[in-house]
From TrEMBL:
It comes from Paraburkholderia tuberum. This is Predicted arabinose efflux permease, MFS family. Keywords: Membrane, Transmembrane, Transmembrane helix. It is found in: Membrane. Pfam families: MFS_1.
């Protein structure tokens, strides 16, 4: 996708949305061209981010067969990717406060694209592990930079919808990765197809050209930077731990830990539980995956609308309760192949939709001068801690069984989220200048 194509699609979309008159879409038509270009740059970036990230899950069986690595080795690639992405998101938040949201977004998109391509050139497990870890560093950074950017360019009353729609790009990228996998593995030998899949991951690098030319820094950030220059008061990362912000930082980190811990608890182990303990054969079908992806996209869209409609906190609590119900259904109810297939939709809907309001909420919790640092730290502390949940479930399962362990961790995680949400302030409609 080149810069002219991106610009044309933005302008065409604006005209289309304007003509609909739909109240759910009117915010887009009323946004200025700068905001619309930032929106599409972030959404496409997040879609390509999701595409590159999800590629690994499709090629693990091929890597096991081709290189003879163990499932534990394959799982460690995923764990290390998540941990490095947490570090990348943290650092990208600091950079976005120092060098700007747009420049940080450019760097992170280019970073994860290049290292995804290098995954396709790896000659052994060690090289793939290193390339994938470095790819994760950029993937985590892209979320932080994009979420802060889009959160600052959209007006307060529409921020939740816009940021949530950007987040929905993840499900689209997941779907694109699944389609590319199906096509490449049907026309190429597996030992070549997996490399081609990763090499296609270089495509996001082209997005940097469009971002560089057409996307500008948010006005609220530029104003803060001028003030910092005039007063020689450079923002410091440690400010998010100052007495004024420490309580907010800790509670927001608990919120994200609950969301991501619950997500990893459910999505990492449920397929294994249902296939090995419930012996449900649908787990190996593309229909189950398609149902989850469709549910994820619908969840992102619905949550994006609800977070502006009912508020940030009620929306988090609603989706947390829905995720708890899904975890209970999967681990406690007698399921058939058909019922499990249809439950894939609400699984994706609630587990993914809870993230839709996260970017807007974190944007509104922190002042402009340290917004990137605060958002990057809180979201990625949650990601790092949440990444440990699958390991802890595996340990606990030897004593209580896998199904019970999944349920315990899912309920605990979403319970932490609900408590954190109840203690944090409601920020719907908050103007960033006064944050």
């Amino acid at each position: 996708m080149d810069s002219k194509t991106l610009t044309a699609s933005v302008d065409d979309a604006a005209d289309m949305k304007s003509s609909t008159g739909s109240p759910q879409l009117s915010w887009y038509a009323e946004a200025g061209p700068h905001a619309r270009r930032a929106f599409w740059s972030c959404k496409v970036g997040y879609m390509l981010d999701g595409m590159d990230t999800q590629m690994l899950s499709f090629v693990i069986p091929t890597l096991v067969a081709t290189w003879g690595i163990s499932l534990a080795d394959a799982g460690f690639i995923g764990t290390l990717t998540l941990l490095s992405s947490a570090l990348g998101g943290w650092i990208a938040g600091i950079l976005s406060d120092r060098i700007g949201r747009v420049r940080t977004l450019q760097l992170t998109v280019l970073w994860f694209a290049v290292f995804t391509g290098l995954c396709g050139l790896a000659q052994n497990y060690g090289q793939l592990l290193a390339a994938r870890a470095l790819m994760g560093f950029g993937f985590g950074g892209e979320w932080t930079a994009g979420a802060v950017l889009i959160g600052e360019v959209i007006r307060a009353r529409d921020r939740g919808k816009a940021v949530g729609l950007v987040q929905s790009g993840w499900a689209l990228g997941w779907g694109v990765a699944a389609l590319l996998y199906a096509v490449l593995f049907s026309v190429m030998a597996p030992e070549i197809a997996w490399r081609a899949l990763f090499l296609i991951g270089l495509v996001p690098a082209l997005l940097v050209l469009a971002i560089r030319r057409y996307v500008k820094e948010p006005e609220v950030f530029e104003q803060a930077r001028v003030q910092q220059y005039d007063t020689q008061d450079t923002p410091r990362f440690t400010e998010i731990f100052s007495p004024r912000l420490l309580s907010t930082t800790l509670r927001a980190a608990l919120l994200t830990t609950g969301a991501q811990g619950g997500y990893y608890a459910i999505t990492t182990w449920l397929p294994t539980f249902l296939k090995t303990e419930r012996h449900l054969t649908v787990m190996g079908t593309g229909g189950y995956l398609a149902m989850i992806i469709a549910g994820s996209y619908a969840g992102y869209l619905c949550s994006a609308w609800l977070t502006d409609r009912i508020g940030r906190k009620p929306n988090f609590i609603l989706f947390a309760l829905g995720s708890m119900a899904i975890a209970f259904a999967y681990t406690s109810l007698p399921l058939t192949n058909a019922s499990m297939l249809w439950l894939g939709f609400p699984l994706g809907f609630f587990a993914s939709g809870i993230f839709s309001g996260m970017g807007a909420f974190l944007t509104e919790l922190f002042p402009t001068r340290v917004r990137g640092s605060g958002q990057g730290f809180c979201y990625n502390v949650g990601r790092a801690i949440g990444a440990l949940f699958p390991v802890l479930i595996g340990v606990l399962s030897s004593r209580f069984g896998l199904g019970t362990s999944i349920g315990i961790f899912a309920v605990a995680a979403y319970g932490v989220l609900i408590i954190a949400a109840l203690t944090l302030p409601e920020t719907r409609g908050r103007e960033l200048e006064s944050a």
